[in-house]
Amino acid sequence: MSSPNLIEARGLSAGYGGESILSGLDFSLRPGQTLALVGANGSGKTTLLKAIAGLLPPLAGELQVLGAAPLGSPSRVAYLGQFHPSGFALPLRVAEIVRMGRFSAHGLFGKLKKEDDEAVREAIAELGLADIADMPLNALSGGQRQRVFIAQALARRAELLLLDEPEANLDGTARATTRRLFDEAVSRGASAVIATHDIEAAAACDYTMLLARRLVAYGASAEVLRTEALLDTFGLVGRAEGDKLVVLGREHGHDCHE
User: Fold this and answer.
1) CA gap 63, 150 in Å, rounded
2) Are 62 and 10 in contact (CB under 8 A)?
3) CA 230 to CA 236: how far, in whole Å?
4) Each residue of 12-43: pLDDT tens digit?
5) Within 10 Å of residue 258's Cβ, how many Cβ atoms?
């Protein structure tokens, strides 16, 4: 495939141990665009993010990221996973964790440059971590740790952000700050794929993909985030009453984890 898209998938299947979680996906993302992945736990959101990040090889189909196979340009992609290590062999400090976001450009033992130090300082300041920059990660709360790893992703200054539930464990103020920082990164030309349960966050993205171990719907967020499609995505039965969604129950036989 030869394309101006940052991500392009054709007939993509992804899963674990040879078993497909998602199959037959066709989608693309251009520079400066955002895509929300919405679904219950186990719906395939993390599976798809890992495939794009190059952490999970496709089972079938084609997938290009930044014009090459996934992981072809690691310094240009920032991946924020849903689960983070907390028990390092060494008691790494907050600033050291954030600095790791710059390693892909220079290698583990490469010398960081002035612009790297600036990116680290800026990310620490933006996420309100300056007062705890010298604290070990394992001494922090869940929300503080999440902000540290968000800072690490932003310090990378990547062209493509892959974010798995980035607002998990954050309070309202931190969520607002995080959304603003991601919006600013996109306004500078970055693209983002965000796995989320938050319909409001999905509505702010250009495109949304609804997943339920299959593709329920994909397209412009304003067109996809409709009552019937959301009920189907989460395996629920309900109806719209004015501007409210009334959930009546779970579809028979649908294993919804939320």
Assistant:
1) 26
2) yes
3) 8
4) 999 999 999 999 999 999 999 999 999 999 99
5) 11
